[in-house]
Amino acid sequence: MCGALEAGGPAGRRVALCCHRGSCLLGNQVGGALEGALLCPSAALGARRARGSTRRSPGSQRLKGLSLSQLIVQFACLLFTMASSDIQVKELEKRASGQAFELILSPRSKESVPEFPLSPPKKKDLSLEEIQKKLEAAEERRKSHEAEVLKQLAEKREHEKEVLQKAIEENNNFSKMAEEKLTHKMEANKENREAQMAAKLERLREKDKHIEEVRKNKESKDPADETEAD
């Protein structure tokens, strides 16, 4: 199959096709119009003569390197694309070697063209009541945030106070324990000194007692010695 593919005017889109010796026509739909590729030299020449031009179409140059199976698949895709629109078939000429016909497509529907706004949508003007509500909501958020900050500050100060009180108590306990330890040590030293003094005094008394006994013994022996001497 081979053929020429044309784009028509406002009345509709036209596709001119002709079948010849098993060759294939392929067409692409671009921006609502149809851009065609002519694969058969004889049909291409006829189509260019009909347009008053002998220049080779870019579509035929793009499809020059495609195989027959690829062309058939792409042509089937083209027919599937055109099936969604209303199509009228008009036979142009009929030969022993092939057949030419014209497909007339209905104009593109306006509903299918998405409308995009040229400018972003304008913001709705706020009324005085809405502005007042927004201001009140902002004031409530500010007060809530301020209360939360004050609460966190109070909790922080309370924590610092507890830490300081705990440090003071620990310092007092340490001082008290150190004082008790020092007092106990001083009492122990005093007791040791008193014990040492008592021991020294006892030794001195024992020594004096021994000296007194020796002196008495010596005095008791002296008269006996004198009588023996006489």
Task: Tell me about this structure.
This protein is α+β, with helices and mostly antiparallel strands. The protein folds into two domains: 2-108, no CATH class; 127-230. The chain is 58% helix and 16% strand. The chain has four helices and six strands, in the order ββββαααββα. Strand 5 (87-94) and strand 6 form a beta hairpin. It is rod-shaped and about 195 Å long. The relative contact order is 0.08.
Task: Give me some keywords for this one.
2 domains; Stathmin_fam; alpha+beta; phosphoprotein; two-stranded antiparallel ribbon; 230 residues
Quick take:
Residues 185-224 have a biased composition (Basic and acidic residues). The protein is an alpha+beta fold. Helix content is 58%, strand content 16%.
Mean pLDDT across every amino acid position: 70
Strand content: 15-25%
Low-confidence stretches: 1-45
Order of helices and strands: EEEEHHHEEH
Individual helix count: 4
How many beta strands in the DSSP annotation?
6
Radius of gyration: 63 Å
Main beta sheet strand tally, sense and closure: 4 strands, antiparallel
Distance between the termini: 186 Å
Helix content: 55-70%
Record the strand order, biggest sheet. Answer: 1-2-6-5
**How many domains, in number, for the residues?**
2
**Alpha-beta classification:** alpha+beta
